[in-house]
Specification:
379 residues; alpha+beta; Peptidoglycan synthesis regulatory factor (PBP3), Domain 2; Beta-lactamase; eight-stranded mixed beta sheet; 9 helices
Length: 379
C-alpha cells in the first residue's frame, strides 16, 4: 500500500490518494462492448459496474425521449387533452403515428406512442402542450438534466434528431434512466411490447403499435423489462436496456453499437448478473494512513475504516480501485481510540463506490503529566 499526499486544503484537512496494491488478485479482464460508448449501472444505487468512453459526448438519437417523458409526467396530467398543432403535424421524418393538425388526443396516448414506437411527432405535440411552446419545453429538459447531475447533456429538440448542439453521454443517460424508471407510468410503458394508441377526435381512429426494443420479445436476456431504442445515421444504433433478477435491476447503455446493439446490451447485462459480487475491499483495523498527534506521548496515530468496506463489484474491477482520504492534518492530544478523524472515498475508474468514516486505531495520551492526569479524570 502506498500513500500519496496531494495537497493541503482549507481547515487543516489533508486529501490523499491510495493505490490499493495487493487488494486485487485478479488480472485485467478482456471484457469489452462493441460500441463507441457503453455503461452498466445499478438501477437502485447508481453504482457503475462497467464503463467504456462513458463520459464522451455522443448523439443520443431517440434515447432523448426518456427526458421528454420525464418532463411531460412532471408537468402534465395523463388525462389532459392535447390539440395537435401545425408544428407537430408537420413532423414526417422517422417513426410517427401520423398526427394531423387539429387532432385531439390525450397525453397518456402521446407518451405511449413516444416510448413504445418512438413516434417523433408525438414528442413535439407533448412539448407544445406541456411547455406552452417547443422552446420552453426544451428549457425544462435542459434544466432537469442539470438538476439530475447529467451535466454533459444538452437538448435542442424532443425526439433526438441530429444537431451538433444536441448531445449526451452514456453515463448521463444512465442517470436519466434511473430517474425515469422511478415513475410508474414510464416504467410501465418502456416494458410494454404491444399497445393501441387511441384518438379522442377523430373518435374512431386508433393505431396498433409494437415496441421497437426487440429484447422485450427475445430470449437473449432473462428478466428484461425495458427501456428504449434510438438510431440515426450520425448516432448509429443505440439502446438502453434494463433487466431485473432477484430484486436487482441493472441498466445497460450502448451508444453507436458496432454490430448488433441487442447483443451488446445483453452481453453487458449478463456480465453484471454473472460477474458482480459482494466483496470486502478493505478490512476494519487495517492501517490506511497515519495522522500526526500534537503534544502526544506518541507522535502519530494510525487510522482505519470503522467497519469493513463492502461493495458490489465485478472481480476485474478490483485492480482499478482508488481511495481518496479526507482527514485531519493533525490532532491535539489526547486522541481516543475510535475517534472520528475523517472519511475515505473509494472509487473505481473515476466513479464513486462508497464513502466510509475513518477512525483512530488506538489511544494517544497527552505528553505532560498534568494533561494525562486530567485526561484520566475525564475518562
Amino acid at each position: 500500500m502506498r500513500l500519496y499526499i496531494l495537497r493541503v486544503v482549507t481547515g487543516c484537512m489533508v486529501l490523499a490518494v491510495v493505490a490499493l496494491a495487493g487488494a486485487a488478485p485478479a488480472e485485467a479482464g478482456d471484457f469489452r462492448v462493441n460500441a463507441r460508448a457503453a455503461i452498466l449501472i445499478d438501477a437502485k444505487t447508481g453504482q457503475v459496474y462497467y464503463a467504456q468512453d462513458a463520459d464522451r459526448h455522443r448523439s443520443p438519437a431517440s434515447l432523448t425521449k426518456l427526458m421528454t417523458a420525464v418532463i411531460a409526467m412532471e408537468n402534465g396530467g395523463l388525462a389532459e387533452v392535447v390539440e395537435v398543432k401545425k408544428l407537430a403535424a408537420s413532423v414526417s421524418v422517422g417513426s410517427t403515428i401520423g398526427l394531423n393538425e387539429g387532432d385531439l388526443i390525450d397525453l397518456e396516448n402521446l407518451l405511449k406512442a413516444a416510448l413504445v414506437i418512438s413516434a417523433n411527432d408525438s414528442t413535439v405535440a407533448i412539448a407544445q402542450h406541456v411547455g406552452g411552446n417547443h422552446d420552453a419545453f426544451i428549457y425544462q429538459m435542459n434544466r432537469k438534466a442539470f438538476l439530475l447531475g447529467a451535466r454533459d447533456s444538452r437538448y435542442v429538440n424532443t425526439n433526438g434528431y441530429y444537431d451538433p448542439g444536441h448531445y449526451s453521454t452514456a453515463y448521463d443517460l444512465g442517470l436519466i434512466t434511473r430517474y425515469a424508471l422511478e415513475k410508474p407510468k414510464i416504467n410501465e410503458l418502456v416494458s410494454t411490447t404491444e399497445a393501441v394508441v387511441k384518438w379522442i377526435n377523430p373518435p374512431d381512429r386508433e393505431a396498433e403499435i409494437s415496441n421497437t426494443n426487440r429484447l422485450l420479445t427475445s430470449d437473449r436476456v432473462s428478466g428484461i423489462d425495458g427501456v428504449k431504442t434510438g438510431s440515426t445515421s450520425r448516432a448509429g444504433k443505440c439502446l438502453i436496456a434494463s433487466a431485473t433478477r432477484d430484486e436487482r435491476r441493472l441498466i445497460a447503455v450502448v451508444l453507436h453499437a458496432g454490430g448488433d446493439r441487442y447483443r451488446e446490451a445483453a452481453k453487458l447485462l449478463e456480465y453484471g448478473f454473472g460477474e458482480v459480487r459482494s466483496v470486502v475491499i478493505f478490512p476494519a483495523g487495517g492501517e490506511l494512513a497515519r495522522v500526526r498527534v500534537e503534544e502526544g506521548r506518541q507522535s502519530f496515530v494510525p487510522v482505519t475504516v470503522a467497519d469493513p468496506v463492502r461493495v458490489n463489484m465485478a472481480r476485474d474491477q478490483l485492480k482499478d480501485i482508488r481511495l481518496k482520504l479526507n482527514m485531519e492534518k493533525s490532532l491535539p492530544a489526547p486522541v481516543r481510540e475510535g475517534q472520528l478523524v475523517g472519511h475515505a472515498e473509494f472509487s473505481v475508474n473515476g466513479y464513486r463506490l462508497i464513502r466510509a468514516p475513518l477512525v483512530a486505531v488506538r489511544e494517544v495520551q497527552p505528553r505532560s503529566p498534568l494533561k494525562r492526569f486530567m485526561y484520566w479524570i475525564s475518562k
